[in-house]
């Protein structure tokens, strides 16, 4: 294929990656908007470089005219989770979409059945329909779901494979295996205190939201011409930042909201 042919060939894959990223990120937002814990921590995606496609095709003996049918990971989505059990929740979310906006071809559970190298992740191969200028095109895509620890390990292994051209020295391989087990032990330990971690994160997010609302209301007071009061509230807010608890922040926010509402009403009556 010529350079322009490759560019045209990859367009549906690029579109699929962008669409899938948006869909999975939207799932995360929906959980957050309902104040629920999201099993999706963050989402990334990529389309294989042409050089990587050609290298893999040569390695697996895939003819160039069969790449679209036989190479499953030209389009790749990676979903990161905080805990191992979240991986299976995400898999269930994908299964619920099977037959709707995607088709599951097969799944591989490398979490429970790790590779010899120590690699762990859950892979779902899908067929995904893309609307193009020439009509609908169905492409293959790979979704990898893993924890943050698994992702860190896999990134390191990928870099080492690149450096040593898939021939990592035996000593480093053994150390990588040990590191993989330690990473999985970390995941298991985190799962043991999952509820405490989630509760702490919720408290942090709630406090962050309240602080943002307080600052917005102080700015609103200032814009309403209540400069002295807005300065007083800013000083009280600064003192709370040093030692205040969430109840005190909530009380300050409630007070501010009432003040803003009062002054807005007064301003509206004057304009009438």
User: In the residues, how many domains can be counted?
Assistant: 2
What's the CATH topology label of the largest domain? Beta Polymerase, domain 2
CATH class of the largest domain, anyone? Alpha Beta
CATH H-tier superfamily of the largest domain: Beta Polymerase, domain 2
Q: What integer value in Å does the Rg equal?
A: 26 Å
* Secondary structure tally, helices: 9
Largest sheet: 5 strands, mixed
What is the N-to-C succession of helices and strands? HEHHEHEEEHHHHH
Output the keywords.
GTP_Pyrophosphokinase, Beta Polymerase, domain 2, 2 domains, elongated, nucleotide-binding, alpha+beta, 272 residues, 63% helix
Structure at a glance:
Helix content is 63%, strand content 16%.
Helix-strand layout with pairing:
Elements lengths: L2 H31 L8 E6 L2 H10 L7 H4 L4 E7 L2 H14 L5 E7 L12 E11 L2 E13 H16 L6 H23 L1 H30 L3 H17 L2 H26 L1
Parallel strand pairs: 2-5
Antiparallel strand pairs: 1-2, 3-4, 4-5
Helix pairs in contact: 5-6, 7-8, 7-9
Pathway: Purine metabolism; ppGpp biosynthesis; ppGpp from GTP: step 1/2
Protein name: GTP pyrophosphokinase
InterPro entries: GTP_Pyrophosphokinase, NT_sf, RelA_SpoT
How would you portray this structure in words?
63% of the residues lie in helices and 16% in strands. The protein is elongated. It contains nine helices and five strands. The mean pLDDT is 91. A five-stranded mixed beta sheet has the order 1-2-5-4-3. The chain has 272 residues and is an alpha+beta fold. The protein folds into two domains: 163 residues, Beta Polymerase, domain 2 (2-Layer Sandwich); 74 residues, no CATH class.
């Amino acid at each position: 294929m010529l350079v322009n042919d490759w560019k045209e060939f990859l367009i549906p894959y690029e579109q699929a990656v962008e669409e899938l990223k948006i869909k999975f990120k939207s799932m995360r937002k929906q959980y957050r908007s309902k104040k629920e814990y999201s099993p999706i921590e963050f989402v990334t995606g990529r389309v294989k470089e042409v050089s990587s496609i050609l290298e893999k095709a040569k390695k697996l003996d895939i003819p160039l005219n069969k790449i679209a049918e036989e190479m499953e990971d030209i389009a790749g989505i990676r979903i990161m989770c905080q805990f191992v059990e979240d991986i299976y929740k995400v898999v269930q979310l994908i299964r619920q979409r099977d037959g709707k906006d995607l088709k599951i071809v097969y799944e591989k559970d490398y979490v429970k059945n790790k590779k010899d190298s120590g690699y762990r992740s859950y892979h779902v191969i899908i067929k995904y329909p893309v609307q193009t200028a020439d009509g609908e095109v169905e492409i293959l895509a790979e979704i990898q779901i893993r924890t943050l620890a698994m992702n860190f390990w896999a990134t390191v292994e990928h870099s080492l494979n690149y450096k040593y051209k898939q021939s990592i020295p035996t000593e480093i391989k053994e150390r990588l295996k040990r590191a993989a087990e330690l990473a999985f032990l970390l995941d298991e330990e985190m799962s043991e205190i999952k509820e405490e971690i989630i509760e702490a994160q919720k408290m942090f997010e709630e406090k962050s939201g309240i602080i943002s609302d307080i600052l917005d209301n102080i700015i609103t007071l200032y814009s309403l011409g209540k400069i002295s009061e807005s300065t007083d509230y800013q000083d009280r807010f600064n003192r709370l930042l040093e030692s205040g608890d969430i109840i005190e922040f909530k009380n300050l926010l409630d007070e501010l909201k009432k003040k803003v509402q009062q002054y807005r009403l007064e301003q509206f009556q004057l304009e009438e």
